[in-house]
Amino acid sequence: MLRGNSACPGCQANLALRHVLRACGADTILILTPGCSAACQGIYPDTCINVPVLNTAFAAGASTAIGVAASTDSNVVVYAGDGATADIGLASLSFALEYNTDFLYICYDNEAYGNTGAQRSGTTPYGARTTTTPGGKRQHKKDIDSIVCAHQIPYMATAAAAYPDDLYRKVKKALSYKGSKFIHVLTPCPTLWGFPQEKSAYIGKLAIKTGAWVLYEKDSGKISISLWSKNILDKYLPLEDYLKAQSRFSGISDKDILELKRNMNESVKRLVQE
Amino acid sequence: MKLIATGNEAVAYAVLDASPDFIAAYPITPQTTIVEALAKFKESGKLKATYIPVESEHSALSACIGAGSMGKRTFTATSSQGLLYMAEMLHWASNARLPIVMANVNRALAPGWNLWADLSDSLSQRDAGWLQLYVSTVQEAYDTILMAYRISEDPNVLLPVMVNLEGFVLSHSAQPLETLEGCYLEPLDLPHRLDTGTPHTLGNVASPNDYFKLRRDAENAARKSAKVTRKAEKELFELTGRAYRPVMEYRCDDADVIIAAMGVFAREAEAACDILRDKGVKVGVARVRQFRPFPEFDFDGRLIVIDRDYSYGCGGILAQEIRARTGKPVYSVIAGLGGQDMTYKDFVKIVIESREEGERWWGID
Amino acid sequence: MRGGGELIEIRFHARGGQGAVTAARLLAQAAFMEGKHSTAIPFFGAERRGAPVVSFCRVSDEPIKISSAVCEPDFVVVFDARLINADVIKGLKKDGTVIINSQVKVNGFISVDASGIARSLGLVRDNIPMVNTAMLGALARFEIVSLKSVKSAIKETFDERNAIAAEQVYREIIL
Predict the structure, then answer these.
(1) B58 close contact with A: CB closer than 8 A
(2) Which of C1, C39, C65 is facing B173, going by the closest CB pair?
(3) Residue A37: its chain B contacts at CB < 8 A?
(4) Which CATH number do you get for residue A46?
């Protein structure tokens, strides 16, 4: 990725993409669906990405990759947001994974429709306010990772832009496998989440430290919690620290915080048990 | 090879002979026997293409767009609801200037559910940037799929082509077919294919000015395609002796009345034409084979236009096109929607009862 | 004209699963083998077992232009005698012929025991005799195509027993 893209200051989605492309190398074809990363690539005929890029429609990231993967030995990487992955593109993603298409699908998750200005998505967490859930979302974050794992692909991992070395390692590892690989990257967004732009990395780290986001990988069916999360499994910071730092959770009730915590604990428990 | 085959089998044989690199498709009645035949060809090793039975028509065309962007020859097939489910990607394929070839087996749109022939599916997509061809026999289905590759892959065109054949009455009807042995097409050379050696971006954000220019380029290509299509017709004629034109004329030279129609109805109308001629009525049939770009349409006679399709509030779609092209009054007949059977006797009656101008829903009005 | 002076139109009446579409196609195939023009047209949408279905075949010395349903058949072929009603003989040409699969003679129709022949040859599926190939023998008897062509067409898709069934039906009809 070249310097001079048009992302907002503090954008973790494009920061993560930079590290992803660094790990992928030049022998890569990148597929983008509509979203922040597609909007930030530059305006025709310019581009900030120095590998071939194929833009495709919102629901078509994975299905377009099927055609590309059938036509090349290069790395085929989809970089798509949470809406494109967990909502509109879920059917095509499901087929591509079931078919074990030889590609790496990366979902950068800013937990809302960012490029259209913060509408609720399937991965928006419980209690978070968006422009379409002004009173806070009443449903829990969609567990896209379990959905993905249900396809029994060779490699799946979560990552966070705030831990680039971990992300880099996981991309490298993913690309060493044949078949479908999936990495789910948390990419905090100052604009959508409501925190100062210089705090992006801080918020990303806080997500892990409070247990709101767990770094792990499922390698050939075996789950292992990644270092940064493993170290703090039994000594999480209070979730309130994470919520209070973001205006999207402002005004969240104690009851909702309890509900969030209950759900979070269950997810972590499930992960550790596996 | 000479054999008896259905329209769908002819499409599958043509795809086999076009030797594509990549096929993605999703089954839908009455297209299904195409994808089944291709799966069999693949299983037997005759078909070299990668064949991926995806989970939806949207994905089928998306996957073809992916492979197409890599410079590969692609094919897909669909019908009716499936074509509409592809609608977003139809525009994508043409705007991305990808030479994808698709067979659409024309079928009515729901509700009510109806599996039979009706051209409303593809004609509703007439502005999607695809060149559209409509066939009327099994042989023509075969020939036209091959010609479609020739046209779409021409460097002056690079637009997708949709070959339309009517459901059941053509897709499942068996007729004589003669196939070519092997592929007469040149390898595809897509100038804008993605290549890791010379990285570039396809389809990123375009400013209004650039967007406008890109659309103008595509429009010019669509216009130029007419000339390329004539070349493809000539080439096929030299190979096979079978002649195709954008408008297939039957006894039109001295005709006082021209029946304009598409697909199997036009052939049925030719039988009516013979009967009427015997009675002294000078009738000719103009079968519109090439719908996009819409061809020259210049006849002296009074015009009766048969539409197996309708645009609510605007009338028959072929009638609209012919009116726009000729500026002449048209007697528009809506007939055969949802597979309603029309015999040559019906067409005789239509001509006898026709007026200078007006609209008639055959069988109701 | 509709595709040549000698246009012969055949309509098959059967139940879903009895192979009427295949019969039309095999007849078209046999005619094609003799250098004639032919088309086979199914008239179905969703196929349901047991429901009444029709299919059509046209044979001519010249290219055939019409693809509409056969409304004025020269021949009507009925696979199941219980299907006989007004619709079955509707539009039949004045000198037209109706051939039915029936153990008992039916007045005015050509009756053949195709079911019995099929059963004796083991051509049974789900306990229902498959008579579609046998009934083609009857059409050969009326010289729409030769018995030889019918048998060759059948053998391209089916085993020898089906060709024998057609021949037995052919021999059973005495004109």
Answers:
(1) yes
(2) C39
(3) none
(4) 3.40.50.970
Q: What residue ranges in A140-264 does DSSP mark as E strands?
A: 155-160, 180-186, 216-219, 222-225
Run of H or E including B285: strand B283-288
Q: Is A57 on the interface with B (CB under 8 A)?
A: yes
The C-alpha torsion from B65 through B66 and B72 to B74, rounded to 10°, is -40
Q: Report the chain B residue with the minimal C-alpha distance to residue C2.
A: B271
pLDDT at A242: 98
Residue B88 to residue C65: CA distance in whole angstroms: 37
Query: So what's the architecture of C8-172 in CATH?
Result: 3-Layer(aba) Sandwich (3.40)
Question: Domain segments of chain C: what residues?
Answer: 8-172
**How many residues are present in chain B?**
365
Q: Which CATH superfamily is domain B2-240 in?
A: Thiamin diphosphate (ThDP)-binding fold, Pyr/PP domains (3.40.50.970)
Query: How far apart are the C-alpha atoms of C160 and C154, rounded to whole Å?
Result: 8
Quick one: tokens of A155?
A: 């490699």
A15-68 pLDDT, tens digit per residue, is: 999 999 999 999 999 999 999 999 999 888 889 999 999 999 999 999 999 999
- Per-domain boundaries in chain B: 2-240, 247-361
pLDDT score for A234 = 84
Q: Does B52 touch chain A (CB under 8 A)?
A: yes
- Name the neighbours of A, counting chains with at least 3 Cβ pairs within 8 A: B
Query: Which residues contact residue B351 at a Cβ distance below 8 angstroms, ignoring those fewer than 6 apart?
Result: B257, B259, B272, B276, B281, B283, B304
User: Chain B: nearest CA to A233, how far in angstroms?
Assistant: 39
Whether residue C66 and residue B343 make contact (CB cut-off 8 A), yes or no, is yes
In chain B, which residues touch C (CB < 8 A)?
Answer: 3-4, 29, 114-116, 168-170, 172-176, 264, 267-268, 270-271, 274-275, 339, 341-344
Confidence (pLDDT) at C44:
62
Residue A7 lies in a domain: no
Radius of gyration of chain A (CA): 17
N residues, chain C: 175
Provide ipTM, 2 decimals.
0.95
Residue with tokens 């013979």: B274
Which residues, in sequence order, are bridge partners of residue C98? C76
Q: What CA–CA distance (Å, rounded) separates B55 from A151?
A: 14
Please count the CA atoms within 13 angstroms of the CA of B211 that sit on its side-chain side: 6
* Nearest-by-Cβ selection for A72 from B70, B202, B204: B70
CATH of domain B247-361: 3.40.50.920
